[in-house]
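== Sequence and structure of one protein ==
=== Format: two labelled lines per protein ===
==== Data for this protein ====
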Amino acid sequence: MSQEVRHRLQLWKYPALILPINGMEDFDLSSELTRQVLMQLKAKGLDTTPIEELSPRFQIAATFTERNFDLRKKEFRQHFKTKATATYITQRLLNHDEDAYRKVNGIYENANGNSIKAPGQESPKQLIQTLCEQYCGEKGHFQTVLVLFDEFGRYLEFASEKPHIAGDAALQQLFEGVQDNVEKCFLLCFIQYELKAYISRIP
């Protein structure tokens, strides 16, 4: 299988944006996809503004941290312990770290009386759509987006047991995003056993 994937990639005219997902980890799928996208784009020196605009809450939290860290240093240290520096926290936020966001949002709410309100379009479907429109094709840096989902069966089990963590609609949103952009996006899932074996263990 790996040789076939490698052969097909070599036939493409432009490079592919490859997003590896490890289903052995327990994570919010939407956040993990965005984290992988930002990491890949930044590594290639590309503008990430179109992706950042899908979830403005992280930028608001980062700006709040930069402006209020010295004033509320004690609160930040209570939440982030020895790693409580403005640079460290801001970097985590800009990488869309959900745990860092929850902590900063708590400090923000304590300071302002309400949580950060910044509705965005953070679904995997919108993320895939934005990638295909802004970064793929003849005018983009990539020919296609390739999502490599390892241990997909195991993640199905996790998502069914803890949908509040995995994102109860994230898998469906991912599939819809790929289906709506079939000319520029591919999803390749790897499983160790037959799919019905995983399904039989789902409550």
Observations:
- The longest strand covers residues 16-22.
- The radius of gyration is 19 Å.
- The longest helix spans residues 29-43.
